[in-house]
């Protein structure tokens, strides 16, 4: 049983990452009909939504693209910043989707921001409490660790609607603004869906780990009775 669990938490994230890299590699070689760079795509969508105060910056790394709500900056990795591909357009539009969410005060995005400090504490301290509890045989420490971990798991779940909504907004924008043609929609969706799979995988693994710890806690409780 433990071997099956170990294989699941190991294989699921790897599979998700491989899907992302495969889709990105394939569609980074396919240029859009508009031949716009990722930076141009991002700027076009931002301006069409009145987000003139949101800037775009090039950042290091591969698939390191993100939106920084504090600085109001969309950061695109070099390949996507300069690239004219379907992958570059999809990822740039997705990150701008987060900027639009921020502008419209999208409820799940606000909730996720509020959860960040709690989730960070949960991720950092949950295992310390759990290990102390398991080594010392103190079920209350394990329970407290589970509570902290549950906060981190909640963050993973709240991230799902945020990411899916950003992708939905991205598709609406690139189609509505004529950045991609109708025959390019399928390819764009494949890039966005592959990226979303990584968040689904992370949430699934987090839930499995939480359930395992709950089972450990209930086993400790029985042994104490």
Automatic annotation (TrEMBL):
InterPro entries: Zn_peptidase_2. It comes from the Bacteria. Pfam families: Zn_peptidase_2 (PF04298). Coiled coil: none annotated. The chain crosses the membrane at residues 127-155, 191-217. Keywords: Membrane, Transmembrane, Transmembrane helix. This is Zinc metallopeptidase. It comes from Niallia taxi. The lineage of its organism: Bacteria, Bacillati, Bacillota, Bacilli, Bacillales.
């Amino acid at each position: 049983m433990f071997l099956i669990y170990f294989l699941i938490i190991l294989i699921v994230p790897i599979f998700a990452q491989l899907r992302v890299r495969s889709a990105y590699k394939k569609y980074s070689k396919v240029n859009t009909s508009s031949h716009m760079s990722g930076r141009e795509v991002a700027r076009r969508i931002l301006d069409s939504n009145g987000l003139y105060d949101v800037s775009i910056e090039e950042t290091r790394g591969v698939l390191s693209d993100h939106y920084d709500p504090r600085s109001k900056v969309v950061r695109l990795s070099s390949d996507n910043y300069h690239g004219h591909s379907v992958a570059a357009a999809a990822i740039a539009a997705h990150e701008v989707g987060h900027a639009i969410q921020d502008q419209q005060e999208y409820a799940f995005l606000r909730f996720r921001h509020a959860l960040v400090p709690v989730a960070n504490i949960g991720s950092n301290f949950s295992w310390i409490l759990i290990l102390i509890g398991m080594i010392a045989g103190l079920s209350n420490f394990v329970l407290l660790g589970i509570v902290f971990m549950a906060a981190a798991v909640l963050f993973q779940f709240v991230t799902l609607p945020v990411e899916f909504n950003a992708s939905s907004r991205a598709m609406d924008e690139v189609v509505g603004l004529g950045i991609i043609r109708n025959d390019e929609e399928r390819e764009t969706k494949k890039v966005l869906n592959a990226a979303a799979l990584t968040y689904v995988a992370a949430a699934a693994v987090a839930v499995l780990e939480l359930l395992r710890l709950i089972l450990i806690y209930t086993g400790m409780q029985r042994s104490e009775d």
